[in-house]
Amino acid sequence: MHGHVGKGPEHSLERPSTRIATGAESAGEARWAVRLTEVRKTHGQGQGGVIALDNVSTALPYGTFTAIMGPSGSGKSTLLHCASGLERPDQGMVEVGGRDIGALSETALTKLRRERIGFVFQGFNLLPALTAEQNITLPVRLAGRRATLDRDWLERLIDYTGLGERRHHRPGELSGGQQQRVAIARALITRPDVVFADEPTGALDTSSGRKILELLRRLVEEVGQTVLMVTHDPAAASYADAVLLLADGRIIDVLRRPSAATVAERLAGLGV
Ligand SMILES: Nc1ncnc2c1ncn2[C@@H]1O[C@H](COP(=O)(O)OP(=O)(O)OP(=O)(O)O)[C@@H](O)[C@H]1O
Predict the structure, then answer these.
(1) Which residue stretches of the chain are H helix?
(2) Among 22, 43, 55, 99, which lies 20 to 30 A Cα-Cα from 87?
(3) Are 96 and 32 in contact (CB under 8 A)?
(4) How much distance in Å is there from the Cα of 77 to the middle of ligand 1?
């Protein structure tokens, strides 16, 4: 595989790729967009406590598309929440763009989440009073005075998402697929180290969902974006470079270049 040096993390997902230029990378600091090292997370305490993540280690190289799958309750959301700093692990380390996010203050973590991480949700989560373009540029405005909008990048994202004709429409005037494309452009506007997508096609019909997955794939291939996506759908997972298969809070398998059929078969073996 490409550029693997020394002993990598337990599950390192390598793919030769165009790599996105980030501040951390250009400084030669980070190889991985996201890295989890022996992450453990328990919900609740004592006898009622549930081990949601049990010593999970994995690393996502820049410019890769990874899917997380597994039975209900296997820890997928918890992994996404820990990787994005929404929840703090009990043990272990989470790095985003080479920064140990556990060492950050709440303020610094909020800033990192706003500027270095993009989020895409099943329900789009757009602000209804803002136009498509205003929704897309909101993260830059929230970043405050220091941040300036990169207009060329905005235009490229509008091209990628095919929203040219709709940029001045409000979410209520857009289809579900179009709203999700706005959400994807919004997630990328700050050129984040990673985009976390939680069931991004869950609320869409098959054809709109496929367009979303093709868009994410293109952004990985052509822009070098790193994407981590939770999905229950083997067809959606087949757009990823690799599938992390979770069961009982552990990564039990990594399926590389997965086909929908391979994924479905492996999940059926787990009783999903
Ligand atoms: N806030 C919480 N309090 C108590 N237990 C929790 C909490 N959040 C998650 N859990 C438990 O942790 C385990 C992992 O949950 P998690 O939501 O990460 O699984 P998941 O794979 O995302 O499930 P699903 O596919 O159903 O969304 C489950 O046993 C769940 O019941």
Answers:
(1) 23-26, 76-83, 106-116, 132-142, 151-161, 176-188, 206-218, 234-237, 260-269
(2) 22
(3) no
(4) 7
The CA distance from 98 to 210, in Å, is 32
Task: Return d(Cα 226, Cα 193) in angstroms, integer.
Answer: 7
Q: How far apart are CA 94 and CA 104, in angstroms?
A: 11
Spatial distance between the Cα atoms of 11 and 254, rounded to a whole number of angstroms: 8
Nearest CA to ligand 1 atom 17: 77
> What is the arithmetic mean of pLDDT over 53-65?
97
Atom of ligand 1 at shortest distance to CA of 230? Answer: 22
Q: What is the pTM of this model?
A: 0.90
Tens-place pLDDT, residues 129-140: 999 999 999 999
Q: Report the separation in Å between the CA atom of 174 and the middle of ligand 1, taken as the mean of its atom positions.
A: 32
Distance, in Å, from the CA atom of 218 to the CA atom of 224, rounded to the nearest integer, reads: 9
Name the residue among 27, 29, 32, 83 with its Cα closest to residue 53: 83
> According to the model, what pLDDT value does residue 29 have?
56
Position 6 pLDDT exceeds 80: no
